Amino acid sequence: MIIAIDGPAGSGKTTVARLLAEKLKIFYLDTGATYRALTYAALERKVDADDPQALGDLARSLKFTVEGSRVYLDQEDISQQIRHPRIDKAISKIVSYSQVRQVIVELQRKLTQGRDAVVEGRDITTVVFPDSKYKFYLDADPQVRAERRAKELQEKGVNINFDEVKQDLEKRDYSDKNRSVGALKKSQESILIDTTGLTIEQSVEKVADYIIPRG
Ligand code: DC
C-alpha cells in the first residue's frame, strides 16, 4: 500500500508524511531528498547544471541510501548539507530535465519496492505512483509557507533574510508548477488538505482520518 502526498514547499507535507509513517509503522520516503542529494553531488563534483546528459549519468552513478529522514550518498551522511539554501537555489534547473527525472523516479520506485510506504513530493500522485491507494495534496497560504521555511532554516542556524526566503519559495513554486515534466499539480483523485491554520498534529490527524477510520 502506498500513501502518496504531493504539495508545495512549506505545505507541511514532509513532517506530516514522516509522522504518519511513524504512526502506521511503515516506510517513509521524502523524494525531495533524492533530488537534493543529486543537486549536492552535482555542486560538489562541479557537473555543469546546463548539461542534462551529464546530470543523468551522475544520477545513475550515485549510491543513495535513505533511512527515515537521514540521507546518505555513498557512505557520507549528507542530511544536513542537502537542506542548505545553496541547494534550494540550484535545484530547480536540475529537477526540470527529463533525463534526470527518469533516473530518479526509477530510484524512488526501487527504494519503496515491496514495502508499504508514505511517499511525498511533487509528482508522486501523478507520475511516480499514480495507482496508489491513497492520494493527498497538501497546501497552505504562501506567507505561512515562507514563515515555516524561514523558521526551519533559523532553527538550523542558517543566517537568513525573510524576504529572500519568500522570493526563493515563490521562484521554486513557479518552476515546480510550470516545468514540462513532473510538474506539481493536484491530481483529480487527490484529497486537498489546507494546513494554513493547522498544527502539525492536526494535519496528521486529518490525513490519518482518511486511512484509519475512527472507531
Ligand atoms: O520537497 P523539497 O522542498 O525538499 O524538494 C526540493 C526540490 O525538489 C523542489 O524544489 C522540487 C523538487 N522535487 C521534485 O521536482 N519532485 C519531487 N517528487 C520532489 C521534489
Description of the structure:
With 215 residues, this protein is α/β, with parallel strands linked by helices. The protein has one domain (2-198): 3-Layer(aba) Sandwich (Rossmann fold), CATH 3.40.50. It is 51% helix and 16% strand. The chain has nine helices and eight strands.
Keywords:
single chain; 215 residues; alpha/beta; Rossmann fold; five-stranded parallel sheet; three-stranded antiparallel sheet; binds 2'-deoxycytidine-5'-monophosphate
Quickly give the structural class.
alpha/beta
Summarize the main sheet: 5 strands, parallel
The overall pLDDT, averaged over residues, is 94
Give the count of helical stretches: 9
User: Uncertain spans, ≥5 residues at pLDDT below 50?
Assistant: none
Query: What is the assigned CATH homologous superfamily?
Result: P-loop containing nucleotide triphosphate hydrolases
Question: What small-molecule ligands were found?
Answer: 2'-deoxycytidine-5'-monophosphate
The fraction of residues assigned to DSSP E strands is: 15-25%
End-to-end separation in angstroms reads: 21 Å
Strand order, largest beta sheet: 2-6-1-7-8
Principal-axes geometry comes out as globular
Number of strands: 8
CATH class label: Alpha Beta
Overall tally of structural domains: 1
Name the CATH architecture: 3-Layer(aba) Sandwich
Q: SSE order in H/E notation?
A: EHEHHEEEHHEHEHHEH
Residue share in helix: 40-55%
Instruction: Predict the CATH topology.
Output: Rossmann fold
Radius of gyration: 16 Å
